[in-house]
Amino acid sequence: MTSLNYRDWHIETSSNAIGTQTGTYFCEVPKYLMIQQTVEMIHEGFQLTFEAPNQRPIALRQAPMYFGPHRSGTATLQIAGNLECGRDIREQIDEVVLYVQALAACTDAPLLPISIDFRTPDGKVLMVAKRGTIMRGIGFRIEERGTATQKIREDFQYFRNTLQTSPSNNKVALRHYLTGLTLLALEDSVPGLLEAAYMQFYQGIEAVVQTHVLHEAKQRIARLSLPDPLTAQIVCHQVFNVRHKYFGHGSETDFHEIADASAEEAFRVAKQCLVARWLCRVLLDHQTPSKTPLVREMRMYLHHTSDVFLGTIREIESTFWIDFGQSVDAKKAACAVFDANGTEVTQSRYQFLTQPLP
Prior knowledge:
This protein is an alpha+beta fold. It contains twelve helices and twelve strands. The chain folds into two domains: 9-131, no CATH class; 135-351, no CATH class.
């Protein structure tokens, strides 16, 4: 369903949750695209048990009805099963999520549990689990406000003309960037938003440099006379390789093993959106009359920590380090950089680290 499937679940259990309890899992799913009708169809035709859905005989099929407690904007799936209180609750939540995903595949519907309760036949709630999110936040510091004021004064007409003109590289890139920014602003309750945002920023970069070939992209970045073309090329190397491993090609399926390993690893992948966003914005702003970049401070949060990408090599080597294959492929680890004439500067070749710095 998503290359960033792993999320923390905030779980609370009752003091009455002892031993193995028989009851029902109530799974709330957001009402997207006829979800209510899909849930009603499932319950009308099947009794959902944890082993497998059991089809009801035609004579015993239920008419569509209200199924269990749910919040406004959600529908509820009920799955009969056991809660093994002596076993890791997170493992059992994952099993319920997999069950619902299998139903989603069968019904061609975006069923995503955002809340799971376990209730006994007499209505006692023994477990409540809420799906966690990867939070984002954007700042607007005093100096950023000053830059924004300058850009409105000097770049507004350029951006308006760019968006009004016939299709052009910069128009396409700007549309991709603004779409990616909008996707990042949306709640993380919908799987796939972060991946979609990353690809919008990547496509914006591709539109500016007019190629999907990595060494050609770096050569064209070198010709732009950016204030720091070396860092931009190194960031480009990471963005293209991350796209290839985590977001662009289903053939490299081991990325799921990496991203599913823990909330920390999923966060490591998710943060790459900020790296791609930074490069896309820097390239776009360099086309403007002011040539002044405005990449407002955007953070991603996990637990009690947050990270922001400011466009430095140190960040690439530490908080925004990621395994895109450089630990096993020397060609991916070696980052060629170029001068404004497109000639490789061998003495400036950068080597990506196989492990992050502390």
